[in-house]
Protein backbone atom coordinates (compact mmCIF):
# COMPACT_ATOMS: atom_id res chain seq x y z
CA UNK A 1 0.00 0.00 0.00
CA UNK A 2 1.31 3.01 -0.05
CA UNK A 3 0.28 4.52 2.36
CA UNK A 4 -0.16 2.86 -0.15
CA UNK A 5 2.55 0.66 0.16
CA UNK A 6 3.28 -2.32 1.86
CA UNK A 7 2.53 -4.02 5.03
CA UNK A 8 5.53 -5.10 6.97
CA UNK A 9 5.82 -8.69 8.09
CA UNK A 10 7.76 -9.63 11.19
CA UNK A 11 7.36 -13.41 11.02
CA UNK A 12 7.19 -16.07 8.28
CA UNK A 13 3.71 -16.95 7.16
CA UNK A 14 4.42 -20.08 5.09
CA UNK A 15 2.83 -23.43 5.67
CA UNK A 16 1.29 -22.74 9.07
CA UNK A 17 -2.16 -23.39 10.34
CA UNK A 18 -3.54 -20.84 12.69
CA UNK A 19 -4.67 -17.31 13.05
CA UNK A 20 -2.69 -14.25 12.07
CA UNK A 21 -2.54 -11.75 14.88
CA UNK A 22 -1.79 -8.18 13.85
CA UNK A 23 -0.29 -5.52 16.03
CA UNK A 24 0.46 -1.99 14.88
CA UNK A 25 3.86 -0.44 15.45
CA UNK A 26 5.25 3.00 14.77
CA UNK A 27 6.97 1.61 11.70
CA UNK A 28 3.81 0.05 10.34
CA UNK A 29 2.42 1.60 7.18
CA UNK A 30 -0.26 1.51 4.64
CA UNK A 31 0.25 -1.04 1.95
CA UNK A 32 2.64 -0.46 1.29
CA UNK A 33 2.22 0.22 5.09
CA UNK A 34 4.63 -1.45 7.25
CA UNK A 35 2.50 -3.96 9.09
CA UNK A 36 3.90 -6.17 11.68
CA UNK A 37 2.22 -9.33 12.79
CA UNK A 38 2.92 -12.49 14.67
CA UNK A 39 1.65 -15.98 14.07
CA UNK A 40 0.01 -18.19 16.64
CA UNK A 41 -2.59 -20.93 16.77
CA UNK A 42 -5.49 -21.84 18.95
CA UNK A 43 -6.94 -25.13 20.05
CA UNK A 44 -4.99 -28.36 20.14
CA UNK A 45 -2.52 -27.63 17.39
CA UNK A 46 0.67 -25.85 18.30
CA UNK A 47 2.62 -23.43 16.13
CA UNK A 48 3.89 -25.44 13.18
CA UNK A 49 7.61 -24.68 13.33
CA UNK A 50 8.38 -28.03 11.74
CA UNK A 51 6.38 -27.15 8.65
CA UNK A 52 8.15 -23.80 8.42
CA UNK A 53 11.55 -25.47 8.54
CA UNK A 54 10.64 -27.99 5.86
CA UNK A 55 9.30 -25.26 3.61
CA UNK A 56 12.42 -23.14 4.09
CA UNK A 57 14.67 -26.09 3.20
CA UNK A 58 12.65 -26.82 0.13
CA UNK A 59 13.18 -23.31 -1.23
CA UNK A 60 16.68 -22.64 0.06
CA UNK A 61 18.46 -23.97 -3.03
CA UNK A 62 16.44 -21.85 -5.42
CA UNK A 63 16.70 -18.76 -3.22
CA UNK A 64 20.47 -19.13 -2.89
CA UNK A 65 20.88 -19.54 -6.64
CA UNK A 66 18.78 -16.44 -7.30
CA UNK A 67 20.71 -14.46 -4.68
CA UNK A 68 24.04 -15.35 -6.30
CA UNK A 69 22.68 -14.47 -9.74
CA UNK A 70 21.41 -11.08 -8.53
CA UNK A 71 24.73 -10.26 -6.86
CA UNK A 72 26.65 -11.24 -10.00
CA UNK A 73 24.43 -9.11 -12.23
CA UNK A 74 24.64 -6.18 -9.83
CA UNK A 75 28.44 -6.32 -9.97
CA UNK A 76 28.40 -6.57 -13.75
CA UNK A 77 26.03 -3.60 -14.05
CA UNK A 78 27.93 -1.38 -11.62
CA UNK A 79 30.26 0.15 -14.24
CA UNK A 80 27.28 0.89 -16.52
CA UNK A 81 24.99 2.55 -13.98
CA UNK A 82 27.78 4.24 -12.06
CA UNK A 83 28.13 4.81 -8.35
CA UNK A 84 25.29 7.08 -7.32
CA UNK A 85 25.60 8.61 -3.85
CA UNK A 86 23.27 6.97 -1.34
CA UNK A 87 19.92 8.60 -0.72
CA UNK A 88 19.99 11.26 2.00
CA UNK A 89 17.16 12.95 3.86
CA UNK A 90 16.38 16.49 2.74
CA UNK A 91 14.43 19.11 4.66
CA UNK A 92 10.84 18.10 5.41
CA UNK A 93 8.43 21.03 5.44
CA UNK A 94 5.29 21.22 7.59
CA UNK A 95 2.21 19.32 6.43
CA UNK A 96 -0.26 21.13 4.24
CA UNK A 97 -3.75 22.19 5.39
CA UNK A 98 -6.95 20.56 4.18
CA UNK A 99 -10.12 22.68 3.90
CA UNK A 100 -12.52 22.13 6.79
CA UNK A 101 -15.43 21.08 4.55
CA UNK A 102 -13.59 17.98 3.27
CA UNK A 103 -14.46 14.81 5.26
CA UNK A 104 -11.54 13.16 7.06
CA UNK A 105 -10.85 9.46 7.58
CA UNK A 106 -11.38 8.42 11.23
CA UNK A 107 -7.64 8.06 11.96
CA UNK A 108 -6.87 11.73 11.28
CA UNK A 109 -5.96 13.59 14.44
CA UNK A 110 -4.25 10.66 16.12
CA UNK A 111 -0.57 9.77 15.83
CA UNK A 112 -1.34 6.15 16.74
CA UNK A 113 -1.14 3.73 13.84
CA UNK A 114 -4.57 2.14 13.16
CA UNK A 115 -4.98 -1.60 13.59
CA UNK A 116 -5.35 -3.62 10.42
CA UNK A 117 -9.04 -4.45 10.11
CA UNK A 118 -9.77 -8.17 10.12
CA UNK A 119 -12.81 -7.96 7.85
CA UNK A 120 -12.44 -8.33 4.10
CA UNK A 121 -13.98 -5.41 2.23
CA UNK A 122 -17.00 -5.73 -0.06
CA UNK A 123 -18.25 -2.32 -1.25
CA UNK A 124 -21.54 -3.74 -2.55
CA UNK A 125 -23.52 -2.54 -5.54
CA UNK A 126 -24.00 0.97 -4.15
CA UNK A 127 -20.58 1.39 -2.59
CA UNK A 128 -18.69 0.27 -5.66
CA UNK A 129 -19.76 3.43 -7.51
CA UNK A 130 -18.12 5.55 -4.80
CA UNK A 131 -15.13 3.23 -4.76
CA UNK A 132 -14.69 3.60 -8.52
CA UNK A 133 -14.82 7.38 -8.18
CA UNK A 134 -12.11 7.37 -5.50
CA UNK A 135 -9.91 5.01 -7.50
CA UNK A 136 -10.32 6.96 -10.74
CA UNK A 137 -9.37 10.17 -8.94
CA UNK A 138 -6.27 8.50 -7.49
CA UNK A 139 -5.29 7.30 -10.97
CA UNK A 140 -5.72 10.77 -12.49
CA UNK A 141 -3.68 12.39 -9.74
CA UNK A 142 -0.94 9.78 -10.15
CA UNK A 143 -0.67 10.33 -13.89
CA UNK A 144 -0.55 14.11 -13.42
CA UNK A 145 2.13 13.74 -10.74
CA UNK A 146 4.18 11.55 -13.08
CA UNK A 147 4.26 14.34 -15.67
CA UNK A 148 6.02 16.53 -13.12
CA UNK A 149 8.97 14.15 -12.81
CA UNK A 150 12.11 15.78 -14.24
CA UNK A 151 15.63 16.65 -13.09
CA UNK A 152 15.74 19.46 -10.49
CA UNK A 153 12.17 19.14 -9.20
CA UNK A 154 11.93 18.27 -5.50
CA UNK A 155 9.74 15.55 -4.06
CA UNK A 156 8.25 18.25 -1.84
CA UNK A 157 7.04 20.10 -4.94
CA UNK A 158 5.41 16.87 -6.12
CA UNK A 159 3.70 16.56 -2.73
CA UNK A 160 2.35 20.12 -2.97
CA UNK A 161 0.94 19.46 -6.45
CA UNK A 162 -0.62 16.13 -5.44
CA UNK A 163 -2.13 17.66 -2.31
CA UNK A 164 -3.71 20.49 -4.29
CA UNK A 165 -5.16 18.19 -6.95
CA UNK A 166 -6.77 15.99 -4.31
CA UNK A 167 -8.33 18.75 -2.21
CA UNK A 168 -9.50 20.59 -5.34
CA UNK A 169 -11.49 17.43 -6.14
CA UNK A 170 -13.11 17.52 -2.69
CA UNK A 171 -11.12 14.52 -1.43
CA UNK A 172 -8.68 13.94 1.40
CA UNK A 173 -5.09 12.68 0.83
CA UNK A 174 -5.22 9.40 2.77
CA UNK A 175 -1.52 9.29 3.83
CA UNK A 176 -1.73 12.68 5.57
CA UNK A 177 -1.89 12.03 9.30
CA UNK A 178 -1.99 8.25 8.97
CA UNK A 179 -0.10 7.13 12.07
CA UNK A 180 1.62 10.50 12.06
CA UNK A 181 2.75 10.43 8.41
CA UNK A 182 3.50 14.11 7.63
CA UNK A 183 2.80 14.33 3.91
CA UNK A 184 0.04 13.77 1.36
CA UNK A 185 1.89 11.29 -0.89
CA UNK A 186 4.76 8.81 -0.69
CA UNK A 187 7.75 9.46 -2.95
CA UNK A 188 10.32 6.66 -3.00
CA UNK A 189 13.51 7.37 -4.95
CA UNK A 190 16.09 4.87 -6.26
CA UNK A 191 16.94 2.43 -3.43
CA UNK A 192 13.91 3.49 -1.38
CA UNK A 193 11.54 0.50 -1.43
CA UNK A 194 8.51 2.42 -0.19
CA UNK A 195 7.09 5.05 2.18
CA UNK A 196 9.51 7.79 1.24
CA UNK A 197 8.61 11.16 2.79
CA UNK A 198 8.67 14.08 0.33
CA UNK A 199 11.44 16.57 1.11
CA UNK A 200 13.75 19.19 -0.38
CA UNK A 201 15.94 16.73 -2.34
CA UNK A 202 16.00 17.49 -6.06
CA UNK A 203 15.54 14.64 -8.50
CA UNK A 204 18.53 13.95 -10.73
CA UNK A 205 18.77 12.57 -14.23
CA UNK A 206 19.02 8.79 -13.92
CA UNK A 207 16.77 8.59 -10.85
CA UNK A 208 13.64 6.49 -10.62
CA UNK A 209 10.79 7.48 -8.32
CA UNK A 210 7.72 5.62 -7.12
CA UNK A 211 4.79 7.95 -6.45
CA UNK A 212 2.15 6.36 -4.23
CA UNK A 213 -1.22 8.11 -4.23
CA UNK A 214 -4.22 7.30 -2.06
CA UNK A 215 -7.35 9.45 -1.84
CA UNK A 216 -10.35 9.35 0.49
CA UNK A 217 -13.52 10.35 -1.37
CA UNK A 218 -17.14 9.80 -0.35
CA UNK A 219 -16.03 7.45 2.43
CA UNK A 220 -13.80 5.20 0.26
CA UNK A 221 -10.05 4.97 -0.32
CA UNK A 222 -8.53 4.55 -3.78
CA UNK A 223 -4.88 3.38 -3.72
CA UNK A 224 -2.35 3.21 -6.56
CA UNK A 225 1.34 3.74 -7.33
CA UNK A 226 3.75 3.75 -10.23
CA UNK A 227 7.50 4.06 -10.74
CA UNK A 228 8.57 6.84 -13.11
CA UNK A 229 11.86 7.50 -14.91
CA UNK A 230 13.68 10.82 -14.43
CA UNK A 231 15.83 12.03 -17.31
CA UNK A 232 18.31 9.58 -18.83
CA UNK A 233 17.89 6.28 -16.96
CA UNK A 234 20.19 3.32 -17.66
CA UNK A 235 18.79 0.43 -19.67
CA UNK A 236 19.33 -1.96 -16.77
CA UNK A 237 17.19 0.11 -14.42
CA UNK A 238 14.58 0.69 -17.13
CA UNK A 239 14.32 -3.09 -17.39
CA UNK A 240 13.77 -3.39 -13.62
CA UNK A 241 10.91 -0.90 -13.84
CA UNK A 242 9.37 -2.61 -16.86
CA UNK A 243 9.53 -6.09 -15.31
CA UNK A 244 8.04 -4.82 -12.04
CA UNK A 245 5.03 -3.47 -13.90
CA UNK A 246 4.73 -6.77 -15.77
CA UNK A 247 4.77 -8.61 -12.43
CA UNK A 248 1.81 -6.55 -11.24
CA UNK A 249 -0.06 -7.36 -14.45
CA UNK A 250 0.67 -11.07 -14.12
CA UNK A 251 -0.44 -11.06 -10.49
CA UNK A 252 -3.74 -9.44 -11.42
CA UNK A 253 -4.23 -11.89 -14.30
CA UNK A 254 -4.66 -14.87 -11.93
CA UNK A 255 -7.34 -13.14 -9.86
CA UNK A 256 -10.99 -14.18 -10.01
CA UNK A 257 -13.73 -15.54 -7.79
CA UNK A 258 -12.51 -18.73 -6.11
CA UNK A 259 -8.82 -18.32 -7.02
CA UNK A 260 -6.35 -18.90 -4.18
CA UNK A 261 -4.41 -15.91 -2.91
CA UNK A 262 -1.10 -17.77 -3.10
CA UNK A 263 -1.32 -17.82 -6.90
CA UNK A 264 -0.52 -14.10 -6.91
CA UNK A 265 2.87 -14.56 -5.25
CA UNK A 266 3.68 -17.59 -7.37
CA UNK A 267 3.05 -15.82 -10.65
CA UNK A 268 4.94 -12.67 -9.60
CA UNK A 269 7.94 -14.67 -8.38
CA UNK A 270 8.09 -16.77 -11.54
CA UNK A 271 8.33 -13.68 -13.73
CA UNK A 272 10.80 -11.81 -11.51
CA UNK A 273 13.10 -14.83 -11.31
CA UNK A 274 13.43 -14.95 -15.10
CA UNK A 275 15.35 -11.69 -14.89
CA UNK A 276 17.23 -12.37 -11.67
CA UNK A 277 15.28 -9.88 -9.57
CA UNK A 278 14.32 -10.29 -5.95
CA UNK A 279 10.73 -9.92 -4.72
CA UNK A 280 10.52 -8.05 -1.42
CA UNK A 281 8.70 -10.12 1.20
CA UNK A 282 8.41 -7.57 3.98
CA UNK A 283 5.73 -5.40 2.36
CA UNK A 284 2.40 -6.71 1.12
CA UNK A 285 -0.87 -5.68 -0.48
CA UNK A 286 -4.06 -5.33 1.54
CA UNK A 287 -7.81 -5.02 1.53
CA UNK A 288 -9.02 -1.49 0.85
CA UNK A 289 -12.38 0.29 0.76
CA UNK A 290 -14.01 2.24 3.57
CA UNK A 291 -10.97 1.17 5.60
CA UNK A 292 -7.47 2.07 4.41
CA UNK A 293 -5.86 -1.27 5.34
CA UNK A 294 -7.53 -4.56 6.09
CA UNK A 295 -7.35 -8.28 5.48
CA UNK A 296 -6.58 -10.04 3.22
CA UNK A 297 -2.84 -9.43 3.24
CA UNK A 298 -1.54 -10.06 -0.28
CA UNK A 299 1.88 -11.75 -0.36
CA UNK A 300 3.89 -11.08 -3.52
CA UNK A 301 6.45 -13.87 -3.07
CA UNK A 302 6.06 -17.66 -3.16
CA UNK A 303 3.99 -18.70 -0.15
CA UNK A 304 1.47 -21.17 1.26
CA UNK A 305 -1.12 -18.57 2.17
CA UNK A 306 -4.56 -20.04 2.73
CA UNK A 307 -7.81 -18.57 1.50
CA UNK A 308 -9.48 -17.76 -1.78
CA UNK A 309 -10.80 -14.64 -3.46
CA UNK A 310 -14.49 -13.87 -3.40
CA UNK A 311 -16.52 -11.99 -5.99
CA UNK A 312 -17.14 -8.40 -4.92
CA UNK A 313 -14.10 -7.92 -2.66
CA UNK A 314 -11.50 -5.20 -3.18
CA UNK A 315 -7.78 -5.22 -2.40
CA UNK A 316 -4.43 -3.97 -3.66
CA UNK A 317 -1.55 -5.80 -5.31
CA UNK A 318 1.76 -3.88 -5.11
CA UNK A 319 4.95 -5.87 -5.71
CA UNK A 320 8.39 -4.40 -5.03
CA UNK A 321 11.34 -5.80 -7.03
CA UNK A 322 15.03 -5.15 -6.41
CA UNK A 323 18.22 -5.59 -8.41
CA UNK A 324 20.02 -6.85 -5.31
CA UNK A 325 19.10 -7.69 -1.74
CA UNK A 326 15.45 -7.97 -0.71
CA UNK A 327 16.44 -7.10 2.86
CA UNK A 328 15.74 -3.58 4.02
CA UNK A 329 16.55 -0.89 6.54
CA UNK A 330 14.33 1.90 7.82
CA UNK A 331 15.38 5.44 8.61
CA UNK A 332 14.79 6.95 12.07
CA UNK A 333 11.62 8.61 10.73
CA UNK A 334 10.11 5.08 10.98
CA UNK A 335 8.70 5.31 7.45
CA UNK A 336 11.40 5.58 4.77
CA UNK A 337 12.54 2.04 3.94
CA UNK A 338 15.57 1.34 1.72
CA UNK A 339 17.20 -1.77 0.30
CA UNK A 340 19.89 -2.96 2.71
CA UNK A 341 22.59 -2.97 0.02
CA UNK A 342 21.58 0.27 -1.71
CA UNK A 343 20.43 -1.47 -4.90
CA UNK A 344 17.57 0.07 -6.93
CA UNK A 345 13.97 -0.94 -6.21
CA UNK A 346 10.76 -0.43 -8.17
CA UNK A 347 7.08 -0.81 -7.29
CA UNK A 348 3.68 -0.69 -9.01
CA UNK A 349 0.24 -0.90 -7.43
CA UNK A 350 -3.43 -1.16 -8.39
CA UNK A 351 -6.67 -1.50 -6.47
CA UNK A 352 -8.76 -4.28 -7.97
CA UNK A 353 -12.30 -5.63 -7.69
CA UNK A 354 -12.77 -9.39 -7.88
CA UNK A 355 -15.39 -10.50 -10.40
CA UNK A 356 -16.83 -13.90 -11.25
CA UNK A 357 -14.48 -14.40 -14.19
CA UNK A 358 -11.50 -12.15 -13.39
CA UNK A 359 -10.56 -8.84 -11.81
CA UNK A 360 -11.45 -5.25 -12.67
CA UNK A 361 -8.67 -2.71 -12.21
CA UNK A 362 -10.34 0.23 -10.45
CA UNK A 363 -7.36 2.59 -10.41
CA UNK A 364 -7.47 3.58 -14.07
CA UNK A 365 -8.32 6.94 -15.63
Give an overview of the whole structure:
This protein has a single domain (2-361), classed as Creatinase/methionine aminopeptidase superfamily (Creatine Amidinohydrolase, Alpha-Beta Complex), CATH 3.90.230.10. It is built from 6 helices and 17 strands. It has helices at residues 2-5, 49-81, 124-146, 155-168, 235-253, 262-274; strands spanning 19-23, 36-40, 172-173, 186-189, 192-194, 208-217, 220-229, 278-279, 285-287, 294-298, 314-317, 320-322, 328-330, 337-339, 345-347, 350-354, 359-361. Strands 3, 4, 6 and 7 form a 4-stranded antiparallel beta sheet that branches. Helix 3 packs antiparallel against helix 4 (155-168) and helix 5 (235-253) runs antiparallel to helix 6. The radius of gyration is 19 Å and the shape is globular. Mean pLDDT is 85; it is low at 1-5, 10-59 and 77-81.
Short description:
This protein is α+β, with helices and mostly antiparallel strands. The chain has helices at residues 2-5, 49-81, 124-146, 155-168, 235-253, 262-274; strands at residues 19-23, 36-40, 172-173, 186-189, 192-194, 208-217, 220-229, 278-279, 285-287, 294-298, 314-317, 320-322, 328-330, 337-339, 345-347, 350-354, 359-361.
Structural features:
globular; 4-stranded antiparallel beta sheet; 20% strand; metal ion binding; 6 helices; metalloaminopeptidase activity; protease; initiator methionyl aminopeptidase activity; 365 residues; alpha+beta; Creatine Amidinohydrolase; 29% helix
